[in-house]
Write a structure and sequence with these properties.
alpha/beta; Rossmann fold; seven-stranded parallel β-sheet; 8 helices
């Protein structure tokens, strides 16, 4: 039987806005029993919860700084004490720092928060919930770790962000293998590696050759499909996989030439400015509202 979110308990980090809100919206549309949203932005969190309420899915919210282990542990303990072992855990929260050479970045302002939120936080969050998810056999569970194509290819002006996503990918896929090899394959991990997504985080960045900047709706739809299917990794668009293959085949200097002069990967962050506005997201329809 295919995995479904219907009647499932879903937890989304960074769930107040952007792709996080879209993941929550899809869960509501597919009649999840409950959706828990973690975010550091209390006002936006309340607004999103209000917009998603009234459609048959119970919405829970909590202000959580995922970069702080104590905050993560407290929030996770609350979920487990309330009997909400996630059927679907979406590690979506992330930040980006860019358009600076590494030696011009600030360790406290740039390196520390990027690594803690993008790479270390998913590890802490998953560690808090995974034992309970494993123990809930034979019911299938899903973990979606939102990484990036930046974790598969080196790119100037985003070295710390790339490092955080490389770490996330390596950890995520390693835990997937651990689950499979230990007889706990009912918990399936999907690592999602999109190119630039138009959430505002990458405002000004240019998509490489044949690599359009993805709309958030398309990115979330592809990640969601892969998560439901329990696919180990989803790269999107197709050029992300092509670039990874070429990088693995070509000598490093040859790949540098192709990446720079053919695909324009190495100049894609030259005009990066960062978030300028929070996009508005459509509310779910009441078409399939549960009683």
């Amino acid at each position: 039987m295919a995995f479904t979110v219907s009647h499932a308990r879903v937890l989304v980090t960074g769930g107040a806005s952007g792709m996080g809100r879209l993941y929550a919206q899809r869960a509501v549309q597919e009649q999840a029993a409950s959706v828990t949203l973690w975010d550091i932005d209390a006002l936006t969190l309340d607004a999103t919860a209000s917009a998603l309420s009234g459609y048959g899915t119970v919405i829970h919210t909590r202000v959580v700084d995922v970069s702080e282990l104590d905050d993560v542990r407290s929030a996770a303990t609350h979920e487990l004490d309330e009997g909400r072992v996630p059927d679907v855990l979406i590690n979506n929260a992330g930040i980006v720092r860019g358009n600076e050479y590494f030696w011009n970045t600030d360790s406290e302002r740039d390196t520390e928060p990027t690594m803690r939120i993008n790479a270390i936080a998913p590890m802490h969050i998953t560690r808090e919930f995974l034992p309970a998810m494993i123990s809930d056999a034979p019911w299938e569970k899903r973990i979606l770790n939102v990484a990036s194509a930046a974790g598969t290819l080196s790119n100037p002006r985003m070295s710390v962000y790339a490092a955080s996503k490389w770490a996330l990918i390596g950890w995520s896929d390693s835990v997937r293998l651990e689950l499979e090899r230990s007889g706990n394959a009912h918990v399936r991990i999907t690592t999602f590696c999109p190119s630039y997504v138009a959430t505002g985080m990458f405002e000004g960045a240019r998509g490489p050759l044949m690599t359009p900047v993805l709309s958030p709706d398309i990115a979330v739809a592809r990640a969601w499909q892969a998560m439901l299917a329990g696919k180990p990794m989803r790269r999107t668009p197709w050029t992300v996989g092509l670039a990874s293959t070429l990088k693995g085949v070509l000598p490093q200097r040859a790949w540098d030439v192709v990446a720079d002069r053919v695909f324009s990967v190495y100049s894609s962050m030259d005009e990066y400015t960062g978030r300028v506005a929070t996009p508005r997201v459509a509310e779910p329809t009441r078409e399939e509202e549960r009683s």
